[in-house]
């Protein structure tokens, strides 16, 4: 087969274009720091990178959800603990005023203390976070308890997603905390009334009920503590998963800069060589053409 001048010229131009294309691709790799920048570079690698990016976004969202859940649960646990302390104070008052040394005057003073404790408990029951009440069930914009201790929330839990198929309740409806087995506000009101009426037997009767109230609160302390531990476990797992995915994504996407620089220098030399060789060959073919 006879090699014509046009065939030789085309071959030279194709070679120069290939060298230029490789040079451009290497320059793009260096400028972006990525070994793949469009699907045509490496379809399989691009697909793997996109899947990793989606998984990473989901994981980071789960971590944000966990932060929210952790804040709600910790605040609720702290509030429940404060409620338990207030009930312990009420029990101490009842024990003090149930003995023979108690007087009418001391009972009147103690009744005022119980009244203030009840107000304190109402305030704790109406605790809010970022404008939302933590004991209102799902009606977080509604104040859960009136001044008399009547409940105006609902009994629904708020579940938040912390994994692909994992959710956790971040709240405790107030009716379950304050009114499930014992109506805490009613017990304190009855204790206050017994103190005001100098009713020693009535005061004695309330001690057992206050113990039941404390037990009711302690059970929720345990429940919230368990949720907090589960949150911590999932947070640690997700943090580890996030680190692994970032490393894998980097391995999939990121270019070896040292290698890319060396390849760019080599490609630059090859491109200049192709231009030089092409110029000589094209000059030769022009001479042959004019003979």
Explain what you see:
With 291 residues, the protein is mainly α. It has two domains: 5-33 and 256-290; 52-249, f41 fragment of flagellin, N-terminal domain (Up-down Bundle). Helices cover 73% and strands 4% of the residues. It contains seven helices and four strands, in the order H-H-H-E-E-E-E-H-H-H-H. Strands 1-2 form a two-stranded antiparallel sheet. A hairpin with a 2-residue loop joins strand 1 and strand 2 (132-133). Helix 2 packs antiparallel against helix 6 and helix 3 (104-125) packs antiparallel against helix 5. It is rod-shaped, with a radius of gyration of 38 Å. The relative contact order is 0.15. Mean pLDDT is 83; it is low at 286-291.
SSE string, helix = H, strand = E?
HHHEEEEHHHH
Mean pLDDT level: 83
Assigned CATH superfamily of the largest domain: f41 fragment of flagellin, N-terminal domain
- Per CATH, the class of the largest domain reads Mainly Alpha
Helix content: over 70%
Strand content: under 5%
Q: Characterize the overall form.
A: rod-shaped
Structural class computed from helices and strand pairing: mainly alpha
Task: Characterize the largest beta sheet: strand count, sense, and whether it forms a barrel.
Answer: 2 strands, antiparallel
Determine the CATH topology of the largest domain. f41 fragment of flagellin, N-terminal domain
Radius of gyration: 38 Å
How would you write the strand order of the largest sheet? 1-2
Tell me which CATH architecture of the largest domain applies here: Up-down Bundle
Count of DSSP strands: 4
């Amino acid at each position: 087969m006879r090699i014509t001048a046009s065939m030789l010229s085309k071959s030279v131009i194709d070679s120069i274009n290939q060298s230029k294309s490789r040079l451009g691709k290497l320059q793009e790799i260096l400028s972006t720091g990525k070994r793949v920048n469009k699907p045509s570079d490496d379809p399989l690698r691009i697909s793997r990178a996109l899947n990793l990016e989606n998984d990473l976004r989901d994981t980071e969202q789960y971590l944000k959800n966990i932060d929210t859940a952790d804040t709600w649960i910790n605040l609720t646990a702290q509030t429940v603990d404060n409620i338990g302390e207030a009930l312990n104070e009420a029990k101490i008052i009842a024990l003090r005023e149930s003995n023979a040394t108690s007087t009418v005057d001391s009972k009147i003073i103690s009744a005022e203390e119980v009244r203030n404790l009840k107000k304190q408990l109402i305030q704790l029951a109406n605790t809010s976070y970022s404008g939302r009440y933590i004991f209102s069930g799902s009606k977080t914009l509604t104040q859960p308890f009136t001044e008399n201790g009547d409940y105006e929330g609902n009994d629904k839990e708020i579940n938040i997603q912390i994994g692909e198929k994992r959710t956790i309740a971040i709240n405790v409806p107030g009716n379950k905390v304050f009114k499930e087995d014992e109506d805490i506000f009613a017990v304190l009101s009855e204790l206050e009334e017994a103190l005001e009426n100098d009713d020693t037997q009535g005061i004695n009767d309330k001690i057992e009920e206050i113990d039941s109230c404390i037990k009711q609160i302690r059970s929720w302390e345990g429940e919230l503590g368990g949720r907090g531990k589960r949150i911590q476990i999932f947070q640690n797992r997700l943090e580890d998963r996030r680190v692994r995915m970032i490393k894998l994504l980097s391995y999939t996407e990121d270019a070896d800069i040292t290698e890319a620089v060396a390849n760019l220098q080599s490609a630059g030399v090859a491109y200049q060589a192709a231009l030089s060789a092409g110029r000589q060959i094209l000059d030769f073919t022009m001479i042959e053409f004019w003979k």
